[in-house]
Amino acid sequence: MPKSRYKSMYPPFRFDRREFFKMSGTASLGLLMTRTLLSAEKAQTAPTGQAAAPARPATNIEEALRVPRTKYSLPGLFPGKVVEVHDPRAMDSESGKPSAEVIKGMFEKGIANLTGQNLKKSFDLFFTKDDVVGIKVNPVGAGLISTRLEVVDAIIEWLEKNGMKRQNIIIWDRFDYMLKDAGFTPERFPGVGIEGLQTMDEAAAEGKSQDNSTWLRPDGSHVSAPNFDQDVYYWADVEGPKDLAYLNQHVFNGKYSYFGKLLTRKLTKIINVPVFKNTGNAISMATKNIGYGAVCNTNRLHKPLFLDVCVEVPAFPVIRDKMVLNITDGLRAQYEGGPGPEAKFTYFYNRLFFATDPFALDMVCHRLIVEKRKSMGIQVNEHPRFTEYLRYAQKLGLGVVDDKMQHIRA
After folding, report:
1. Distance between CA atoms of 182 and 188, rounded to whole angstroms?
2. Which end of the chain is more exposed for a tag (fewer CB within 10 A), N or C?
3. Contact, 272 vs 136, CB < 8 A?
4. What is the reported pLDDT for 44?
5. How far apart are the C-alpha atoms of 60 and 261, rounded to whole Å?
6. What's the pLDDT at 51?
7. 326, 310 in Cβ contact below 8 A?
């Protein structure tokens, strides 16, 4: 059972989401689970006479749902509305270099079409100049399919022009080294905070080193343990493995996935900036970027709760009431081999997608990537289970993914 009530606020795969390098032990098991679960071509139904699949593990989702909502709570100010902006000039087809000016124009067009207001009034809808805004990027596949620096530039310029100080803006992800690899550094973004929720010893994770002293304290705890808030957590009745490889990667094991203190104690608003890519027959975009990026101890959740995590973690007020905007970076996209980078499956898509509702956004993008996968000769499994989690979000009042959803091409 959960150890205490949920505290919502404080005063002012390849895979466990990020591990695209080769890993041993529990990490490689997580990769196998993800590929098997989301790439299988047959429905998960038990044949007659065989035992049914194990019951879904209990979670503390009801605790999150009991917390009163605010005007910013998901699905946000524009439920079910998704704006797609396309400009073929965004990425140079020969050099692969992005055009900062074109991307800035796409960003401004997308914001205006989402809100129906100019940039100043749009800013005022979501923020005050005193907010502390966290820009959640996706650094996987650095320079190939990671969140484009130029998209983040456009976001920061918008915030700064409307009175927000650069020190009130923080670019973040779960793993600190991935931010650096993808170019999210203090030198590239002077005056802006750059924060990873945790560190990890790559050599130890890859089995290349037996020295755990860089991440393991003498008392057996992870050096990043203080970065996570043990009063604010996603609980699921699934134990995390107890081996050191798992602990290195996940900070904690057991049945609790703690939210980063960056989210619980510092950020007042969140802008989510995923990339356009698949994960098997499902996608790895807005809801997975935040669902698996905001908490630790996640690999244990892959087999029993993989896609449900993308609903239940964002349902907690620390995300639900703060994540006011989602922008999917589809400038360079990937239709197969994801969520890790596979260059041969990438293509210049030259699109940005805007929404306050991440579930509507993912439904639109899921349909688009299915079209792309089919056009490239991929055998696609369109079983409803690959989008059931989005309909689950609608049942919880977190998104609009039915026929009331709007997909606007601006």
Report:
1. 11
2. N
3. yes
4. 43
5. 19
6. 54
7. no
Q: Which tokens go with 398?
A: 């977190």
Please indicate, yes or no, if residue 5 is contained in any of the structural domains. no
Residue matched to tokens 């029993």: 304
User: In which domain, by residue range, is 186 found?
Assistant: 26-39+57-409
- Show the tokens assigned to 268: 């007042």
174: nearest Cα among 136, 229, 213, 133: 136
* CB of 272 closer than 8 Å to CB of 353: no
SS3 54: coil
Is there a domain that residue 13 lies in? Answer: no
Total domains in the chain come to 1
- What does pLDDT average to over the chain? 90
Q: Any idea which residue has 């499902």 for tokens?
A: 282
Please identify every stretch of the chain with a pLDDT value under 70, giving residue numbers as ranges: 1-53
Q: Which amino acid, 331?
A: L
- Residue 333 covered by a domain: yes
CA distances (Å), origin 198, targets 195, 225, 252, 331, 391: 9, 8, 11, 28, 32
Question: Strands 254-260, 193-198: parallel, antiparallel or unpaired by DSSP?
Answer: unpaired
The whole-angstrom separation of Cα 388 and Cα 307 is 9
How far is residue 396 from each of residues 69, 115, 239, measured CA to CA in Å? 12, 24, 26
Structure tokens at 387: 């989008």
Provide the pLDDT for residue 38.
Answer: 66
In whole angstroms, what is the distance from residue 403 CA to residue 8 CA?
A: 32
How confident is the model at residue 206, as a pLDDT? Answer: 81
Q: How many CB atoms lie within 10 A of CB 100?
A: 16
Q: What is the DSSP string of 207-247?
A: TS----TTTB-TTS-BTTGGGEEEEEEEEEEEEEP-SHHHH
Is residue 49 a part of any domain in this protein? no
pTM: 0.91
* H/E element, 317: helix 317-320
What is the spatial distance between Cα 7 and Cα 3, in angstroms, rounded to a whole number? 12
DSSP state of 129: T
